[in-house]
Design goal:
The model is unreliable at 1-33, 345-357 and 362-368 (pLDDT under 50). An 8-stranded parallel β-barrel has the order 4-5-9-10-13-14-15-16, surrounded by 8 helices. It has a 3-stranded antiparallel beta sheet with strand order 1-3-2, with no helix packed on it. Strands 7-8 form a two-stranded antiparallel sheet. By secondary structure, it is an alpha/beta fold. The chain starts with a strand and ends in a 9-residue tail after the last strand. It has 14 helices and 18 strands.
Length: 368
């Protein structure tokens, strides 16, 4: 059996073949290697069950609040971002941007897919796209608490509306928290960069997109680099940071990211394998594992993966074991608590440029 942290016992329920034994949370050993195991999918099942050494212990990842703090406030709203930055210990937030027909940049996700984003059905209770409206019109719409789009309590949903990107950046800038701006809608590249430059937030922002031509445009506009000292080495990096987003990952994803001048590669959490993370790092790029929205993550935990819960500590720990640099999560407070609970194996204060390692209880496997 696999022993997880004792306080994870509420994360994986009996329908996942779990039992509580001697005060420790355990899972039948067949789960960790079958097709419904996230650990096996990501290639970390051997790491999880090996003796722990500092050189294999996961480093402390950057905590990114996906759409802010969607379990605390309505996603992609200013209260959500401020909660993530001020209350939930996020190092960064992630948001989605559309340019509406009036030219205003607004922060919104919506239904639909990457080819047809911004649909309104579950957010507002009627059909259409955010792109059909001006900002003034969109901000008059009331969010629909019954549509299933929001993970927070219903009483908070009616208190807010879709914000402009300017409003969000004005609120976040004083906190110093980093901002990953996904260019969700068409024609967002130049106006987003223009606004970030106007607000003197270039060093605080990363620009990402599934449509790699959008971040390629930014790289052609801004190819300049800076030199950073890392571990006594000086490495040139792009000042304007861009992230190549992938959902289904093609075999040549690293080359595609390199070809558009990406400084980071962002993979869906259950495609973020150890091999892919290593390939990204070998090319000098940063890596991020992004988690789907709350509805999809709930479905994944119930139907796809039996060895972890719905964005609980066990799920985050499994993804961390890949060595990924950042986790873009819907429950940043859970990830923060996991990191705080882990004993730091590098003694004393962390020196600049020094890797921070974490120590977790040993994981062992026995026959079911």
């Amino acid at each position: 059996m696999v022993d997880f942290l004792p306080d994870l016992k509420d994360a994986i329920t009996a329908d996942k073949s779990s039992v509580l034994l001697n005060g420790a949370f355990t899972i039948n050993s067949d789960i960790i290697s079958d097709q419904m195991s996230l650990a096996a999918t990501l290639g970390v099942e051997k790491i999880l069950t090996a003796p722990r050494h500092q050189d294999t212990t996961p480093h402390r990842p950057t905590i990114v609040g996906h759409r802010g703090a969607p379990y605390h406030q309505p996603e992609n709203t200013l209260p959500s971002f401020l909660a993530a930055a001020r209350e939930l210990h996020c190092d960064a937030i992630e948001l989605d941007v559309f340019r509406l027909k009036c030219g205003t940049l607004v922060v919104f996700h919506g239904d639909g897919n990457d080819q047809n984003p911004g649909s309104l059905e579950s957010y507002y209770g009627f059909s259409g796209s955010i792109l059909d409206y001006t900002a003034e019109e969109a901000r008059r719409f009331a969010f629909d608490a019954s549509g299933g789009a929001f993970a927070c309590s219903s009483d908070k949903i009616s208190r807010t509306t879709v914000p402009t990107l300017r409003e969000v950046l004005e609120g976040i800038k004083p906190t110093g928290v980093k901002v990953t701006i996904e260019l969700k809608g068409p024609d967002t590249e130049d106006p987003v960069v223009d606004l970030v430059e106007e607000m003197d937030m270039v060093d605080q922002c990363t620009f990402s997109s599934f449509k790699l031509s959008r971040i390629e445009h930014i790289r052609k506009r801004h190819p300049e680099t800076t030199v950073n000292g890392i571990d006594n080495e000086h490495k040139a990096t792009y000042r304007y940071k861009t992230g190549a987003l992938f959902n289904n990952v093609p075999d040549n994803f690293v080359r595609l990211a390199e070809d558009v001048g990406a400084s980071e590669v962002h993979l869906r959490y259950d495609t973020c394998t150890t091999e892919r993370v290593k390939a990204i790092h070998d090319k000098g790029m940063k890596s991020m594992a992004w988690f789907c929205g709350p509805r999809t993550m709930k479905r994944d935990s119930e139907m796809k993966y039996r060895d972890v819960g719905n964005e609980d500590r066990s799920m985050y720990r499994v993804v961390m074991e890949t060595g990924v640099d950042s986790l873009c999560v819907n429950r940043p407070d859970v990830l923060f608590d996991l990191l705080e609970a882990a004993q730091e194996t590098v003694g004393g204060e962390k020196a600049e440029g020094e890797t921070m390692f974490l120590s977790f209880p040993k994981v062992t496997v026995a026959a079911a």
